[in-house]
Amino acid sequence: MSNITTIKVGDHQVKIEAGELVGYQVSGHEFMHQKGNPGWRNVDTEMFPLIGPTNEADFKVNTPKGFATQDQHGLLREMEYVLTDSTDSKAVFSKKYSANTEILNSKYPAKSTAEKLSWPYDFEFVKTLELVNNTLEVTFSISGEEGMPFMLGYHPAFMLHSENAVISTGNQDITIPEVMAVGSRALQVPKTDTITLKDEKSIQITSEGFSHFMLWTEVPNMVCIEPITFYPYAVAQQNLAEGFMVVKDEPAIFKVSLKPL
User: Fold this and answer.
1) Which residues contact 15 (CB under 8 A, 6 or more apart)?
2) Which entry of 46, 87, 100, 227 is 20 to 30 Å from 77 by CA?
3) How far is it, in rounded angstroms, from Cα 50 to Cα 246?
């Protein structure tokens, strides 16, 4: 059985592989980075319940329930999505976690000394991809124990088709060499909710519920444009907990809209 889900409206077609957005084509033009191309082995991922590296803090982050063992960008990415609903234009995926369940860290032992990751709270993380009004809307719903701390980042990678692509915030244009120059830290674009990638064909990325973006690439053929609730390099890794939001008594909803222009 294939784990590819396809949603389509008109000339917009979206390919999803086990919850990962692996393709978004409009009239045959592919906007997403493709697996196997230089740059990154994924096309999108979610950073949860924290953003950023933890190696300098011995892979520990402080929570109201004590220290949790987390690797870079949290443990959600080590879990598998379950498809819970799909129509021609929409697909819904879920990940459920039970408090203190140990999850094997795929970065161990090559890139990490933390063999197993865990989190002291139950949560459910739902990702919905839907084509609406010539736009791909990606919605995240986070529910769990009231008071659970978390950060959220969405990490999609876009294919670059020309050598002079720029990332526009409205106030400034950022070039791909400028992003590459920052390296692994990722370039912060603070207090912004809309960014346009201007390339052979342009796409506008709009976020709701996030506060900032960060930009990352180490190659000239792709760029990650990432809505984030907190820029992790603003603090020492030992102080990452300063960036936490908390779950209230109803699900926290975040949205990212990808609109080809």
Assistant:
1) 4, 5, 6, 21, 22, 23, 24
2) 87
3) 12
**Which residue has tokens 């390339």?**
199
Tokens of 258: 């990808």
Q: What are phi and psi of 180, to 5 degrees?
A: -60, -35
19, amino acid identity: G
Does residue 1 carry a pLDDT above 60? no
pLDDT, tens digit, 9 for 90 and up, residues 118-136: 999 999 999 999 999 999 9
1: Cα within 13 Å, side-chain hemisphere: 4
CA distance 230 to 179: 18
The model carries a pTM of 0.96
Q: Is 28 exposed, middle or buried (0-12, 13-18, 19+ CB in 10 A)?
A: exposed
Q: Is 52 left (phi over 0), alpha (psi -120 to 50) or beta?
A: left
**C-alpha dist (Å) from residue 155 to 58, 107, 218:** 24, 18, 15
Residue 11: C-alpha distances to residues 22, 28, 29, 138, 195 (Å): 17, 8, 10, 18, 23
